[in-house]
Amino acid sequence: MGACRYCRSERGELVLDLGDQPACEYFPPLDDPGPDPVAPLRLWLCADCGLAQLADDADLPDQPAGVEPRALAEQRRDAVRAVVAAGLLPSRGRVVEGPTPHGGSWLPLLAEHGLDAAGDGPADVVVDGSFGLMHATDQAAALDGLLTHLAPDGLVLFQWHTLAAILREGQWNAVRHGHYAYYSAPVVQRMLADRGLGIVSAWTFPLYGGTVLVAARRGGRPDASVGEVITAELAAGVRDPQALRGLQRAMDAATSALRQLLDSAAAAGERVHGYSAASRAVALLNSTRTDHDRLLSVADLSPAKQGCRMPGTRVPIVSPDRLVAASPDTVLVFVSELIAEVREAYPQIEAAGGRWADAGTGAVATA
Questions:
Q1: pTM of the model
Q2: Which residue, 144, 95, 85, 99, is CA-closest to 120?
Q3: Which of these, 162, 238, 251, lies nearest to 207 by C-alpha position?
Q4: 266-285: pLDDT as tens digits
Q5: What is the pLDDT of residues 60-78, one digit of tens each?
Q6: CB atoms within 10 A of CB 104
Q7: How many CA atoms lie within 13 A of 214 on its CB side?
Q8: Where are the strands (E) in 172-300, listed by range?
Q9: Quick one: residue 114, left, alpha or beta (phi over 0 = left, psi -120 to 50 = alpha)?
């Protein structure tokens, strides 16, 4: 690690090492023989500002377009409702939204409340609500670029999958190429304060095990919610290297659970498929050396991914219709938040005697 992506400090510690991993966002065509390019995937915690971040840059291929999960769209709507209920949105004005490769947008929802897209600004509201800022290799420069659009009395809305949830739930495979920063509320408070912005309110949501949204403005004074979120996250260990090293143990447990599930299925002659060709599936499959002999396919809604294969493997990516037609005994869901959604969408799996299981824990979904 050279220097912190935000404060440029060189003091810090490695807290997670996933070894060399293929690109988490590039799904090669099925007829591409490989080998796929790999790069180190390591998490580093800055001892000065506290930002958890990737230790290495990776010049790896870009992702195909994905299909936004329903849970993410619902989260965005809940977040806008919370800000409206708090009376923080202006009755009319202009809004700038930061770029994101994840798809989806806050703009239609904010337009319902009198906010029009501002283009280059100035903007009464600036929002990074779709997890865009974390993709920047230079965090300070990216934040400055976003805030250049902010009007003097404007409001900033910033949402992120919090490091506290990653730590609390052992979400080691949330660490992935292309996601360079892993925020916590204390770090975000500092980043905004360095630019004269004070967080005025904070909300937590269940998406991804814990998503935080903050609203900030120049000279803003915090309400009670801000201190509550910061205190809880510090207690969870977001500034503690030893606590964060627990992610390495979580990785060991998850890979062991997947190996055991696949071994048991193979011994019983069961057919195992997967659902969601998500980035977080890549490190899990490659860390367990899971390939087409154990995992017959992974279904995904994205047409751009269908006909491709999971990075570092020969596992084909297929449509959900093909998954249903295969009548699998077990379907491993690589994004646990999707389990309820896919059970509702594809009842044929269980009707035919199949089961859904969380790929990260091996737990089977029940009614």
A1: 0.87
A2: 95
A3: 162
A4: 999 999 999 999 888 999 99
A5: 766 554 566 778 889 999 9
A6: 16
A7: 32
A8: 181-182, 197-205, 211-218, 272-275, 298-299
A9: left
